[in-house]
Amino acid sequence: MSVDDALKSKPMKLKEEIDSWALFVEALRLEDRELFKSMVQKTWNYSDAVEICKDEYTTEALLLSILISQQKTINWLTSQLELSKNRS
């Protein structure tokens, strides 16, 4: 499948990967389950990248998508902290 074909199709790899974690999610406590779902929801921002990765790296692509999203949040929080310090 070409990159263009992968991007035109529905993001099946990501959905399949998320679905494969169902038993893990069910075993989590409710509060952790909600947190997991929230983290995974943000991975849809990176579905194009997941779709074009090799099949054997779908889990890694999902986890890296979560890490990128978390890093963006960390960067934003750090900048807000710096702004707050500068105002004081």
What's a quick, concise take on this entry?
The chain has 88 residues and is an all-alpha fold. The protein is built from 6 helices and no strands.
Characterize the structure shown.
- This protein has helices spanning 3-8, 12-20, 22-27, 30-42, 47-52, 58-87.
- It has one domain (3-87).
- 80% of the residues lie in helices and 0% in strands.
- It has 6 helices and no strands.
Radius of gyration: 16 Å
Count of alpha and pi helical runs = 6
Order of helices and strands: HHHHHH
Shape: flat
Helix content: over 70%
Q: Any key phrases for this structure?
A:
88 residues; mainly alpha; 6 helices; flat
Summarize the topology.
Elements: H1 3-8, H2 12-20, H3 22-27, H4 30-42, H5 47-52, H6 58-87
